[in-house]
Specification:
single chain, 115 residues, 3 helices, 63% helix, 0% strand
Length: 115
């Protein structure tokens, strides 16, 4: 399970970094989303994700190995913040397109007379 999780985190982060370095602003947005998902999977994996742990609920008064709820709470918070950042970036992209008429990263700051 650890190997699968490591490969998944690597693929998400590598794909996200590749897309963040592209010229098209929508690809940059998709890259930021993939980076966020990669970090979320990494944090869940570091929080003690295994088959032996149970939810932190006491049944019949027995408390054996249980999963820590703090990483799960942090991931829920990160998902909400990631959604808000994504929505904000979409609004900025749409406004930038209205003003400049292009969605290319290098073309957004140029005026007509500049080279």
């Amino acid at each position: 399970m650890a190997l699968f999780t490591s490969i998944l985190v690597f693929l998400l982060v590598a794909s996200g970094l590749y897309l963040v370095m592209r010229r098209h602003i929508y690809e940059v947005l998709l890259g930021v989303i993939l980076l966020g998902h990669g970090v979320n999977v990494f944090m869940i994996a570091m929080g003690g994700w295994s088959d032996e742990t149970k939810p932190p609920i006491l049944i019949n008064g027995e408390a054996t190995a249980y999963a820590d709820a703090l990483p799960q709470a942090l991931i829920l918070t990160a998902i909400v913040i990631g959604f808000a950042v994504t929505a904000f970036m979409v609004v900025l992209i749409l406004r930038g397109y209205e003003v400049t008429g292009t969605v290319e990263v290098g073309e957004q700051g140029r005026e007509e007379g500049e080279a």
